[in-house]
Model the fold of this input.
Amino acid sequence: MFRSISPDSFSKIAAGVSSIATTAAIVAAGLWAVTRFSVLLEARIAEAEADKAEAEAAIAQRSAEAKEIVNVDLAALVLTTKSRGERWVSVALTLKNTGSKDHIISLEKDVRFYVAKVLQTKDNGEVQYDKMLNLTFDYADKSMTWFNLKAGAESDVYRAIKRVDSAGVYIARFSVVAPEIDNFPAREYRAQTYVFVD
Done:
């Protein structure tokens, strides 16, 4: 009934069964790894998309909050008259509100706008200046008491001019302290530049 199998045939059959089992195990392990990797990849993608959506929502909320961002720049130019030998410093103050809320800066107090001659610099870097020559914005028909900076508008340029008595290096400086308004903390807007008068 049963046929006897020779040891040589048995080892061939056992090797064949072992090869089939090994191949099946490798295929099963590969399928399991691919399935597991796909599930983990989908979870990571979903987590990354949730983080991105949360970050975008935070950025949108910050952008929606009304705030003013004021950029201040100062430029100076020397003007001379040949016939009378007079020296003048012309100063241009540029203000731009790149924020999302209009902003008014009062000029009624805590304002410094002047030119002053540099007398010397000490070894420690401290600079000594001559008397401050106060500047006012050069509108013949009115005096400026505030700046109304519209959100996202083009730069506003305000000019002033002052006669100076002697040659040398001059500082032109503007600063104003804006008080706390609507939960925005008090801050100082300032700019300065140097110009050589010959």
In short: The CA atoms of residues 26 and 45 lie 28 Å apart. The beta strands are 70-80, 87-97, 103-106, 111-121, 127-129, 133-134, 146-149, 156-164, 168-178, 187-197.
